[in-house]
Amino acid sequence: MLNTADLVRDGKLVAAAIDAVQIEPAALLAALPAPASPDQGAVLAILAGTLHLQAATPVLLGLLARDGLAGRAVAWALGAVPTTAAEAATTEAALLAAIAGGSIDIRDNAYHALAVLTARGLASATLAQSMIERVQAEIDRAKAGGSGLGEQVCRVLSVLGSPQLPELIQRVIEQDRYCDRFELQRLRKAVEDGGQDRSAVKALSAPWRVVFADSLVAEPAAAPAAAPGKPAPAPGAKAAPQQSAKPLVGHASGPSQIPPAAAGHPGPEDAEAEAGASAEDQDGGPPPSILPIEWKAFAASPEAHALPAPVQQMASQLGPLLEQLAARAVRAALADLNGQEFVALLLQVLPQALPPQHVQMALSPPAINAYQAIVKYLVRTGQATNGPELIDAVKMVRTELTNQIRQSGILGGPDYRDPDDKPPVKA
C-alpha cells in the first residue's frame, strides 16, 4: 500500500516520490475508491491518469463529487486517461451525463475533465453544441437560485475555439449576476486574439507536474556542477543560495506588512536572492530568459518615487516576492509574464502563497498601486516582454477586485480606482 507520508508533505505533492511509485493496476483500482486520506486519493488519481488506466474511468466517474486537490486530480485523470477517439467518446458521454444531474462539485470537475480531454485533441465533433446548450442550462440554474457554472462551460468552448463564444460570454455576464466576470473577460480576450485559448490548451495538455505545479513541494535545487575549466568550491566555502522549500513569508508580524526575515521564514531580501538563485545555470549565472530585476534601481526610479512613502516600502517588499512566485509557479521571469499570467499571479498564486492574515494587505488598493508602479517601471526600461499586456492586467485586477466588493454587498469598501485616472473637470 502507498505510504502517503512519502508522497505528500504539508498538503503538497512530492513529485519525485510520486513518479517513482510502482504499483500494479489491480492494486491501484482497488485503492482508488476508498483512499486512506484525500491526499492519497489525489495521488492515486494522478497515477491512474499518468498510466492511462482505462479501467479506472468508471471508478473516477464515481469520484467526481470530491473537492479540493483530490477533486482536481480526479478531473485531470478523467481527461488524461483516454488515448483513442473511442475511449474519449465514452468518457465524454459519461461526463455529460454526470453534468446533467450533478451537484456543483460534480459539474465543476466534469467541465474541467472535458477541457483536459479537449486540449489533448480528443473531443468529439458534437461537444461544442453540447457545451453551447449547457451555457443556457447553467444560466437557468443561476436564475433559479442555484450556482451557475457558465464560466466553466465557456472555458471548454474557449479550448474548442467556438466562434459563438463571445456572444455566449456576454449572455452569461448579463444573466448570471454571480458569474466570474474576470474569467469570462479573460476568455473573451483570448479567443478574440487567436480564435482559441492557446494558453489554456498548453496548460491543460501539459505533463502532470506542470498541471499541478501550484500543489508541489518546492524541493531545494541541486547544487550546480562546476563548469569545465572552473575549480570546484573549496571545502567549507559558502554554498550558492538554493531555492527554499520553506514558507514564502513568516507569520509573526501584523497584517500591515509582509514580515521581515526570521528564523525559518525568508523575508523580501531572501525572496529576491532565491528567485535569482533558482534560475542559475551551471556557470553560476542566470540564463538570459530569467534575468533578475534590479530592485534597487526600481526604488530609485520615478515610478517608485511617485508613490507615497509607505507604499514605496510596500513595493520594495512585494516586488521581490512576486518575482519569486513567478519563478516558482509560472517558471518564468516576472518581466516575461504575459497579461493572463500576471493576473493569475496576483489573484490565484499570491493568495495561496501568503498566510491568510497577509492576503488582505497584498491585495489592498495601495498594494495594487505598487504593482502598477512596478509594471510601469518594467515597461519604461524595456524589461517587460509584454508591456501593454501587463498594463492591462493591472486594470483587470482592479476591475475584478472591485466586482468582488460589489458582489459581497460591502458598503464603503476599499477603493480600487486607478489614481492615474483623473476625474473629469467640471465646466
Q: Can you describe this structure?
A:
The chain has a two-stranded antiparallel sheet with strand order 1-2. β1 and β2 form a beta hairpin. With 427 residues, it is mainly α. It is globular and about 65 Å long. α6 (68-80) runs parallel beside α8 (104-119), α9 runs parallel beside α11 and α10 runs parallel beside α12. Mean pLDDT is 81; it is low at 221-289. The protein has 22 helices and two strands.
Return the string of H and E elements: HEEHHHHHHHHHHHHHHHHHHHHH
What is the global morphology? globular
Q: In which range does the helix fraction lie?
A: 55-70%
Question: Major β-sheet, in short?
Answer: 2 strands, antiparallel
Question: What is the tally of beta strands?
Answer: 2
Tell me the number of helical segments per DSSP (H or I, 4 or more residues long).
22
Strand order of the largest sheet: 1-2
How far is the first residue's CA from the last residue's CA?
Answer: 77 Å
Hey, roughly how much beta strand do the residues contain? Answer: under 5%
Features:
two-stranded antiparallel ribbon, 2 strands, 427 residues, mainly alpha
Short description:
By secondary structure, this protein is mainly α.
Lay out the secondary structure.
Elements: H1 4-7, E1 8-9, E2 12-13, H2 15-19, H3 25-31, H4 38-50, H5 57-61, H6 68-80, H7 85-100, H8 104-119, H9 127-143, H10 150-160, H11 165-175, H12 181-194, H13 198-204, H14 208-211, H15 268-278, H16 295-299, H17 302-305, H18 309-330, H19 339-353, H20 356-362, H21 365-380, H22 387-408
Antiparallel strand pairs: 1-2
